[in-house]
Amino acid sequence: MQISDKTVVQFHYDLSDSNGPVESSRKHDPVLYLHGQAGLIDGLIEALEGRSAGDSFSVTIPADKAYGQPRDNAIQKVQAKRLQGAKKWKPGMIAVLQTEEGPRQVTVIKPGLSQVVVDGNHPLAGRELTFTIDILDVRAASEDEMAHGHAHGTGGHQH
């Protein structure tokens, strides 16, 4: 079966950029997703389309089809008490910022006692990314998965 809308795909990946390895799924459970729904970057969705279980490939994705370019307006000064994840902040630490739209992951740029400068851009924004993919399984999505808008793992519905 080929990957297309309404298929559930299971795969492992290694991710690298120009600086070297970034992360890998291989020491964890494989990625499981419902193709045609949100959840992966655009360039990876396009690269997976039409492939089958057993396929292995590498693809380099430009920043614009990955996490986009960094936005200057994503850097802001916020009250330290709005950050969650640590009591004392250091540059480069990841924090959760409580916003009106809900929690959002940010990177600390410059800590202070009451104010902290944070970057709301995705940590991989502006980077060309290379994925090495091994597709393990492709199957038709169940009615339940389509209704929920995401893939269910072995044993059914898992939230």
From TrEMBL:
Family matches, as Pfam families: FKBP_C (PF00254)
EC number: 5.2.1.8
Gene3D superfamilies assigned: 3.10.50.40
Keywords for this protein: Chaperone, Cytoplasm, Isomerase, Rotamase
Catalyzed reaction equations: [protein]-peptidylproline (omega=180) = [protein]-peptidylproline (omega=0)
Family under the similarity heading: Belongs to the FKBP-type PPIase family.
Protein name from the UniProt record: peptidylprolyl isomerase
Classification lineage: unclassified sequences, metagenomes, ecological metagenomes
